[in-house]
Design brief:
globular, 22-stranded antiparallel beta barrel, 6-stranded mixed β-sheet, 4 helices, Maltoporin, Chain A, Immunoglobulin-like, mainly beta
Length: 761
Amino acid sequence: MKSGSDDTPIVGGTLHIKETGKTIATDASGFYALHLKKGIYTLLVSSLESKTENIKLEVLSDGRYDLELEPKLVALEEIIVSSEKEHIVRNNQMGYQKLVAKEVKEIPLVLGEADIVKVSLLLPGIQSVGEGSAGFNVRGSPTDQNLFIINQVPIYNTSHLFGFFSAFNSDAVKYFSLYKSNIPVNYGGRLSSIFDIKTKQGNKKNFSASGGISPVTARIMVEGPLKKEKSSYMIGVRSTYSDWLLKKVKDPDIKKSDGQFADVVTNFSFEINNNNQLELFSYHSFDRFNIVGQNKYEYANNGASLSWNHLIKERHSLQTSIVYSQYAFTEENSELKINSYKDNFELKHSEIKSVLTLRPNSKHSITAGFNSSLYMIDDGNFLPLNEESIISPIKLGQEKAIESGIFLSDEWSISPKLSLSAGARYNYYLYLGPQEVRTFVDDAPKSHENIVDTIQYANNEVVKSYSSPDFRFAARYIINDDLSVKLSYNQLKQYLFMLTNTIAVSPTDKWKLADYNIKPMLGSQYSLGIYKNVLYGKYEFSVETYYKTVDNIVEYKNGANLVVNETPEIDILQGKLKTYGVELMIKKSLGRFNGWINYTYSRAEVVVKSNNLEESINKGESYPSNYDKPNAFNVVANYKFSRRFSLSSNLVYSTGRPVTYPVGVFYQDDMELLMYSKRNEYRIPDYFRIDFSLKLEGNLMAKKFAHSTWILSVYNLTGRKNAYSVYFKSEEGKINGYRLSIFGVPIVSLTYSFKLGNYAN
């Protein structure tokens, strides 16, 4: 199924056969397969971006039927979170959301930058630690348990400007899928969620361009045919000119700061013939900051993928991809000349994957395949920055591992009402040399004093291996045309995690592999949900409840230094995480007034218990996870006064996250020292924010050279000083507490966007 405007695949389009009552959806390549007996049928074909069409089809024998849908020529009124018709009731998938890039641009966001990833924070079960922070916490889990991939390429730092913006150009993104319950079996390596981003392939019929400017960024995307209707290109570029904002700050030190970031995405698509297509994708993002002339940061993501899509006998498909991703950073700190230093880090990820989809008949869809990833980590060097520094040089070492998996699943339509999906994935992980491994006294705390021996492993020698199966199961029962119940079970493994000293993700956070002393994490999740369409799909209601456990969750000893640490296994503790909750959501998709309301109640508790008190936290008692926010409430409302003028608003509320406070002082050798509470015993104040935006479209003539849009947005309309963190100072013999707010005043932005052609293009 393709779009009639640019010949690109329509993903998530639906075909409903009136005579049989069966509904199917197109896959990521726009491919569909129908199994029909000889006869005459009526197809109701639709997608979010195209007109609905009735097609009479006479089936005489096997064959191929390409569908080309005409784009809608009306202003968008659909809801921002979108999916194929009746997906919420009829599909097996739970905990799934799909966001289309061009529909999130009305959502008011900070500094007017449309951000498809940040909008996910308005969905149930997804939180962040605060404004301007990178990373997301899905159902109470740490940020590193989420996998971000763009056109098969994993991205290990997804933010610009330390988290104020995501690293993805919304003009180049076509759609974004989020899985947080029954994760498909072809995904592995993360316990919490999959953020799967797909870019535009490129217009195979005509040249097109779009772009815009906001207070801090400028962006442009161009696309067009290399050979008409056979091959295409898409190139998206975004950069910042944010230094002018820093110069407006009264603080003279801030005026000395500067920062730049940019990202470039390209996609080239080649249709070799009806059964074979190649896609070459590349991604680059770059950040450079100089803070008050004393702290310099540079970090970058680089990645590429080459994918071959092959159609087999008009009903089966095979996708094979080669993937490369790299993340690196450098930090220079000259705040104190005597302790000035330079630090660096690099992670390389190389992967091959292949997924075969078989459709033997109308009741079964079988997925099988494999993937294998090579991780190479260079922890870098901690070096003196200049001759005045007394820092001792430290070489922090390197790591290497191979993570492989084979998988098989089957989606079985037992009857029109009952459908099952079951699969298994077998993981095999090898931690490789060259490596120096420390062994410790049995049943004793891991410490420098308890090191027994150091074992040397040669290059590519197996240091440690882990292997085990994962299981996935889902079931859906349709009670009636508008009501269904679903349940699912997930079991996953994770062999890569992040070392961080902060709650928020920082570009200087380093990734670490499971090794001889640190075990991989094991996660299991049970989910149950009820889904209801009301008034012919005008309203959608869903309620999901879940229970998730993680064994070998990574926590840290108090005072651990994880940035410069030659023996991280000494400071790392492993325990158990338990999260559970319920997510309710009501959406209105049609009409001038649309939007959604959701409420999430969730809890996340950690237990780190050992026979050795110094390797326990809170004496082995449970405590709230860093990301435990019991209550979250979001409202998104859009009202279209006319085809050109619309208003949007958000309301966001959540419980404050847990923190550890000083609760007293004591003296040792006449030195005043702070005494702290149990870990995460207190909470920062609750979070509340209202946003507002007005959108004005250019005239909606059927044929015109270019279409423009103006958006006036106000972020934090009430100017509430939400606490990002609470910190304490010793002043005149007293310990005083202070709140740190990131955006304590309303942030007003005016954004201009354009695209060549009329509104529909």
